[in-house]
Amino acid sequence: MVARAAILEAMGKNSDASADYARVEAIAPFNPNLLRRKVNVLEESGDYAGGLALLSDEVVRGSPILLVLRAHVSIGAEQHLAARRDLEAALDHLEPKTDRSSLSICLNIAELTTRIAAPDLAEKALRRASDSGSESFRAVLEGRIAFDRANTEQGVAAYRRAEKTATTKSERTDILLELASAFYAAKDFAASVAVYEEVGSGHYHHRGFHSYLRALMRAESYEKVLSLIEGSETEGEGGIASLPHWALRMAVDIAWRQEDYFKVIHYVQPLADEEQDIESQLLLASAYLSIRREDSALPLLSKLAGRDDLTPEERMQLANLFQATKAKANAASQAFKALRYKPDDKRMIMNFVIVLATESDVPADNASLDHRGHGDVNEAQEAEGLTAVTPDSWVRLVPDRAAPIEYFIYASPPVEAGKNEYLVSDAVVQDTVGKKRGDVIIRNPGRWNERHYRVDEILPAIVQVFRRHITEFEGRFPDTPFIQQYDVGEKPTLETLAPLLATLRASSDYSDRIWGEYDAKRLPICLVAVALKRPLGQTIGAIASAPNRYVFTDPPHTAEFAESVRIAQESSRLVITRQSFATMLTIGRLDRILADHEVLVPASLLEELHAEIDEYSTLVEKGRIGMFETDGGFGISEIKPGEAAPWLLKLQNASANLESRGTVLRRPLSALKARDQEWRENLLGSSSFDAVAIARAESTPLFADDWGLRSVAKAEFGVQSFSTAAFSTALLERGEVSNQDHEEDTIQLILLKHYFIPIRPQTVLTAFRKDRRTAQSVISRLADPELDVSSSVGVAVAALRAIGLTPIVSVSLREATVLLLRALLADKSGHDVIPLFLLLAREAFKLMPQQLHDVHEATMGIVRALGYVPRIGEQRH
C-alpha cells in the first residue's frame, strides 16, 4: 500500500496517495516507509527537531533502517556524535546478514559516515557492503575515506577510478565536482581550481560556477575571478542586476582590496538597494566618502541613522562614517546609542571615547568633562545648553542627610535599573523631569519617611558617560593602555608634569630607535612612516629637518649608480612614488618628467596627496601649536594661520598636474595576495607598495628617492628602479640638459640631504659660485667615509684647478684649498689624504706655478695647524 501511495504521489494524484498513507498509518503507525515519508517532509522544511521527535529511541530500537534514517536527520541537525552512535548500532544489527537489502543499508551507512569524517567506520561499512552499489559510487566512497585520512594521492586515484567507471556524462561531472570540493576542503586550492576548470565550471550557467570562483578566491587568482564576474555581467540579460549576490560580494571584496572605490560602488549598489542589507549600505557610504562624494553618502547615512534594526557594531561604524562628513554632529549620538546596547564591551567603549574626544560639539573644558571636581556647574550647564532635567540627561540629587542619588534618564530603551538608568516615563524619575538646578523635590510628603532632595547637577547623559569611561577605563581594562590621565594641577610644576613628559619621552625613545635602525640599515622611508604611524610626506620632511640624517637614495658604488643611470636612460615610462614626487616638487622638475615620460601614478598616492592638502588647508585656516623635544627638554612650535599658504598652493598645483597628465592606476589585481598584503599593511604602506606592484605588473621602472624601497623592489618583486640623481645624470648624458642645469640639480639634491650623490669638480665650482654655506654642504660630501680617498681627493684637486683657471670673487684659491682639505680630513686620515693631495696638485698645476704655490702653502698651513700628518686610524680635527 505504501508503494502504491508513492506511485500515486509521483503521478500527481495527491488526494488518492494521502488516503493510502492514512490507511497505512492506521494499520502500522511505525511503518519504516511511512516514517521515512513524514521525516522527509519535515527535513525539507528544515524541521530537524520534528523529525528527531518522530524517531524516538523506542521507535528506532532494533530497526537498522530507522537508525540510519535518524542518523541522516542528526547529520542535517549537525549532531554528528548522535549520528555516529546510530550508524554504529545499525551496522551491529546487520553484522550477520548478507541479503541484498542489508548490504544496501551497509552501503548507505558507509556513505553517511563519510559526511561526518568517520573514516574507520566508513571503511568498515564499505567492506560489509561487499559488491553492493555501482563501482563508481564505491570508488567515490573510497576517495572520501582517503581524503578524510589526509591521503590525497590515494583519494585522487579513487575519484579518477570512479570517473572512468561512471556511465553518464552527468555522473562524471558530479564525481569531478566532488573531487574539486575535496581538494578545497584539504586547502589545496590550486588543485581544486584545476579540477573545476577540467570540468568546465568557468561558464556562468555551470552548476560548479560558484564553487569554482570560491576556489579561485582562495587561490588568490583575483584577475580570473573578476574577469569571470565581468563576463557574466555582460552575458546576463539584466546586466549587473542578473548577477547573484555572492558574485557581487566577491567583486566588492576584490575592488575594496584594490581601493578601487568606483568599482566598489558599481558592484555594491545592487546589494545596498536591498532594504535589509545594512552592511552593504554602510560599505556604499564608505566608498562614496573615499572618493569625496559626501553628497551621495549623507542620504544613506541619514537613512541608516533613523533605523532601529542596526546592530551595535553597525551603529558604531555609522558613527565613524558620520565623523568624516559635515554632519559630524550626528557621530556622537550614534556612538552613544551603540554603546548603550553593549555598555561593557571594551571596543565599544574605546570607539565611543574616540568619537567624543574628536567631536568638536562635545565640550572639552574642565568644567564639563573633568571627572575630579565639578568646577563651576552653572558654567558647565550653560555651555551644554542644558538648564533642566530632560530625556537623555543625567541628574544628581542631594538629600538633607544622606548620600547623593544619580539618575540617567533616557527617552528610549535600553535601560538597566542596576546602573540607575530609567526611561523618562518610569515613575521613579517622573518628579525630576523639568526640574532645574537648585530646585527641591519632596518625596513621600506628609509621611514619616518624607525626604527633600535638591537638584545639584544636570548634564547630558552622554557627557556623564564619557566622564565615567575616562575615569574608569584604566582600572577596568588594565591590559589595554588606551586612556591615560595626567593630573597637572591648576599651576603645573615639574613634579606634576613628570608623568606626561615621561610618556612623551617614551614615545620619543621609540621614535629614536626606529630612526636609529633607519640610519644603520637604510630602511625604506615608507617603512619608517608605517612604524611611526606618520604620513609619508611628513616622514620625508622629518629627515630633511634632522641635522645628521640623510635621505638614502643610492648606494655609494659607481657600478650600481651607473646601472641606475642606464635604467633611467632607457625608460620612456616610469612609476612615480611619494618620495620622488617630494623631490620633483622641491627642485621644480615635475613638468619636465611629465613632458618626457609616461608617468604611471598610483591612485593611493593621489589619495595621500589629497589628505595632505586637506591637512594643509586646515593648517592655513587655523594654524597649529605643537610640542617637540629639544636637547634640554620640550619646546613649543607655532605655525600661524596663513603661513603655510604658499606651500599649500604649490602642493595643490603639483597634485593636480600629476593627476591630469599622469596615468592613474589602481592597485593591480596581481598584488592582492596575502603575502603582498603583508608588505602593504605592515611594511611599506599603500602608496609605496602600490608603486612597486604597478611597476611589477607593468614591467616599468620605479622612480624612487628611497634606496631601502628600491632594494625591496628589486629583491622581493624583481622591479628595476632609479633615483632623481640617476635621472638627472641620464638627462645630461643624453644631452637633454646643460652642465649648468645638471650641477644646479645636483646641488639641490645635496641640500635636500640625498645620499649618495656623485660629485664632479664642476659641482664644487658651481657651489663656490653660490655662497659659502652651499659650498660647505657640497664639499662636506667629499669626506664621506664610504668614498675612497683617491676619488674624493681627485675631485677636490680638479675643482681647485677649475678655480685656478677661472677665479671666483667669493673665494680665493687658498681659501678654497683650506675648505676642501678641512672637509676631506673630517672623516679621512691625513696620512692618506695629504700626500695624495700634494701629488695630484703638482700634476694639476704643472703649468701654473703661482697657483701651485698657493695650494702648497695652504696645504702646509693645514699640516702645521694639525701639528703633524695624522697616521692611519688616527682622527684629528
Features:
single chain; 877 residues; alpha/beta; Chitinase A, domain 3; Rossmann fold; five-stranded mixed beta sheet; five-stranded parallel beta sheet; 44 helices
Task: Present the secondary structure layout.
Elements: H1 2-10, H2 14-27, H3 32-44, H4 48-54, H5 57-60, H6 64-76, H7 80-93, H8 100-115, H9 119-128, H10 135-148, H11 152-165, H12 169-185, H13 189-198, H14 209-218, H15 222-235, H16 245-258, H17 261-272, H18 278-290, H19 294-305, H20 312-323, H21 329-341, H22 346-357, H23 366-369, H24 377-384, E1 393-399, E2 405-410, E3 421-423, E4 440-443, E5 451-460, H25 461-476, H26 494-521, H27 525-532, H28 536-545, E6 551-552, H29 558-570, E7 573-576, H30 578-587, H31 590-596, E8 598-602, H32 603-622, E9 624-630, E10 633-639, H33 645-661, E11 663-665, H34 674-684, H35 686-698, E12 702-703, H36 707-717, E13 721-722, H37 724-733, H38 739-751, E14 754-755, H39 761-770, H40 772-779, H41 789-805, H42 813-827, H43 830-844, H44 849-866
Parallel strand pairs: 2-3, 6-14, 7-8, 7-12, 8-11, 12-13
Antiparallel strand pairs: 1-2, 1-5, 4-5, 9-10
Helix pairs in contact: 1-2, 3-4, 3-6, 6-7, 6-8, 7-8, 8-9, 8-10, 9-10, 10-11, 10-12, 11-12, 12-13, 13-14, 15-16, 16-17, 17-18, 18-19, 18-20, 19-20, 20-21, 20-22, 21-22, 22-25, 26-27, 27-28, 27-34, 29-37, 32-33, 32-35, 34-35, 37-38, 38-39, 39-40, 39-41, 41-42, 41-43, 42-44, 43-44
